[in-house]
Amino acid sequence: MPPSASLPRPCLGFCLFNSSLLIFNSLLPTPFTFVRLSYHSGDWDAVDERMPSNLLHSLVQYTTVPVDQKEKVVALDSPELFRYPFCYLSGHRLVQFSEAEKKNFTQYVRNGGFVFVDDCNHDIDGLFARSFEEQMRVCFGAGALKKLPKTHPIYSQFFKFPDGPPPTGFELNGWGDDLVHDYLKGVETNGRLGVLYSNKDYGCEWDYDFRNKRFLAEDNTKFGVNILLYALTA
After folding, report:
1. In what residue span(s) does the DUF4159 domain sit (predicted)?
2. Cα angle, residue 230 at apex, residues 140 and 208 outer, rounded to 5°
3. pTM of the entire structure?
4. Is pLDDT above 60 for 2?
5. Is residue 213 a contact partner of residue 221, using CB atoms and an 8 Å limit?
6. How many Cα atoms within 13 Å fall on the side-chain side of residue 135?
7. Which has the higher per-residue pLDDT, 194 or 120?
8. Residue 110: what are its φ and ψ, rounded to 5°?
9. Helices in the chain by DSSP H: which ranges?
């Protein structure tokens, strides 16, 4: 697919049944693939190895969206990126995109792609945070990365989060910058969110074997389901 074309998007619908919102798929050409972005700087592959399969399990558990059970790694500067509507980028260290990576990231988002970016340092003043936010300024202009209001559709896409983004155990235990971040940031293009940016370290929060969810009082991956469904339907 040429980078100038719109990204392929699943054809999804919603229905109400017994007062519960259910999602069904119609004519979905391929299963949903969880794509992790590799990039030349930083440590894109250092953490959260079990997180993708955990979120995919939740997508199967709560919806009927077909999924590819294996995570796929795609280079940010590869044209293959434009085959997928969702991708994930994370790390601890410096983020400094090459010219090809900047071009692909910008075009991907403007074409309708969705990038979920998670700072594993959970620190608004850390190296990853400062360098990634600078890359967003370069790609989309000063002020493009903005705080999302608690009324943003991503907080009600499937499960309801009226108080905004749920906290993580790392924040509550005082790790990182010792703050509970009550907001996420994002970049919007053409009236939709194309980049979702978190300093909350959801990747490590969800980095456990999906079979252990049964021991939790509340499934903490539900917000991850919202993120994936927003990426597929918005």
Report:
1. 33-232
2. 100
3. 0.88
4. no
5. yes
6. 25
7. 194
8. -70, -25
9. 51-62, 99-110, 127-140, 169-172, 202-205, 222-233
